[in-house]
Amino acid sequence: MKKVLLLIASLVVLFACSGTRNNDPWGVIDPTKTPKQATVVESSINSSIMRQKMTYSVWLPASYDENQSYPFLYLLHGYEYGDQSRLDRCWLDKGNASRLASDYEIKGGVPMIIVMPNGLSSFYMGDYEDYFHTELMPTVEAAYKCNGKRAIAGLSMGGYGTLYHALKYPEKFTYAYAMSPAADATMASFIDLKQDKSVFPKFTIEVGLQDATVDNSKAKSLYNSMTQKGLTCEYIERAGTHDWVFWKECLPKALVAAGNSF
User: Fold this and answer.
1) Sign of torsion over alpha carbons 131, 110, 38, 254
2) Domain that holds residue 219
3) Across the strands, what pairs with 44?
4) What is the C-alpha separation between 195 and 193, in angstroms, rounded?
C-alpha cells in the first residue's frame, strides 16, 4: 500500500513540475507555440502643416508580419475636452478597441492595421484635412505596408470626419462607418462632384435613439440624400445614448463591415 501511495505522490509531483497545461490533459504548453499578442505602437509626426507634434497609435494584429502588406482601418475619436496631447488613445483607453479588435481577429476576421490618429478638436477638416492625407496617411502606410485598401470609422466628431472624408475622397476608402455622427446634410454635395457613383464606398450610419448630444435628424437627412443619389448606405437606429457603452457595441460591427469590404 505504501508503495502505491509513493507512486501516486511521485506522479503528482512529476505532473506538477512538467508545466502549465492548455486544456490538454496529456501535454504542456510549448512556449514556441504560444499565440502572439496584438500590439499597439505609439508614434508621432512633427507636422509642418499642423505646426506641432501630432501623435497617433497603431494597432497591429497578432498575426502581423512586417514582410506582408495589410488593409488599414482609420479609427477616429470624438470631441474631447481638456488635454489634447494624446487623444489618439481615446479608443484604446475608453473604447476597449484593442480587445475588440483582437476578438475579431481570433474569430477569423481579416487581419488589418488600425490607425488611431489624434484629431484634436479639428472635426478632421481645414489644416487637419491636409495633414491627414499628405502627412499622416503616407507616413503610416509606408511604415506598415498598406495594401491599398482602407476603411474609415469614427464616433461623434469622428463620425463627422468619417462621412466627410469618405464622401470627399471616396476612391480612398472601401467602407465608412459613422457612429453617432455630428452629421451635416450639406456633405451630400460632394456626391454630385462624382459622375460615377460606383467610386463611393459603402456606408453605415448608426445612431442612438436616446442621444441628446447630436441631432439624429441631420444624420437621417444625409442618409436620405445619399441613398437618393445612388449610394449604398445602411441606417441603424437602436436604443442608446452618446456614450462609450453605445460605441463599444458599434465597433465590432464596424470591424466586420471593414473586413468584408477588403
Assistant:
1) positive
2) 36-261
3) 55
4) 6
